[in-house]
Amino acid sequence: PRRYSNFQWKSVVVIAVVILIALLAGASGLVISSTYAPLLIGGALMGVLAATTALFKPVWVLYLAIFLVLFPEGLIPSEIQSYLNRSFTVFAVVVWGVDTLTRRKKIIVTPSLFFITSFIVWSVITLFWAKDLDAGSTSIQRYVLRSLLFLLLIPNQIKTHTEVAGLMRVLAFSGWVLLISGVALLMQYGYTA
Predict the structure, then answer these.
(1) 3-state secondary structure at position 173
(2) Residues 31, 15: contact at Cβ < 8 Å?
(3) H/E element holding 40?
(4) Around Cβ 63, how many Cβ atoms within 10 Å?
């Protein structure tokens, strides 16, 4: 009997996965009564795939969280952008925590993290003096998530030259997205002071 090459098996697997995804997208209307059912099922499948990948490459989740935090406001609805920022930052912290616990890594606490934590504690204490608790709690939440992302996760996950290069690529890509969106908005609406 003739043996199949590795390339042929990969093609068969790709075709089978595409057929499975098409069947799931078609059957999703039976499970969820919405016109967005295929997108929801696809998003759930992508979430499972992302979670599985994140366990092997937790720094990729950090890169995605940084990109989403630096994504220009107004390109997508602000409610969705806020949800994505918060959820992926929390996801990055959880993935890092699981990776740290399972591999028994040391946790690096920088002096900057200590000072921002002191500031956040003071902010929580003085929050009750404010007239608008919602605005204050939103600001505190933003400080907590950004300090976790930039002052805890980056020092603990970015350790090799390859990881630094990946971080620089994410920052460069974020800068280009900001630049291109700024130029597009300038051309569309013009400059207003």
Answers:
(1) helix
(2) no
(3) helix 37-56
(4) 20
To which residue do tokens 């918060």 refer? 86
In the numeric block, the tokens 């220009």 are attached to 72
**Pick from 152, 90, 147: nearest CA to 121:** 147
CA–centroid distance for 159 within its chain: 20
List, in order, residues 6 or more apart from 113 with CB less than 8 Å away: 147, 151, 152, 155
Q: What is the pTM assigned to this prediction?
A: 0.74
pLDDT in 10s for each residue of the chain, 193 residues: 456 565 676 777 778 877 887 787 777 777 777 777 777 777 777 777 777 777 788 899 999 999 999 988 888 888 888 888 898 899 999 999 988 998 888 999 999 999 999 999 999 999 888 888 888 888 899 999 999 999 999 999 999 999 999 999 999 999 999 999 989 888 888 887 7
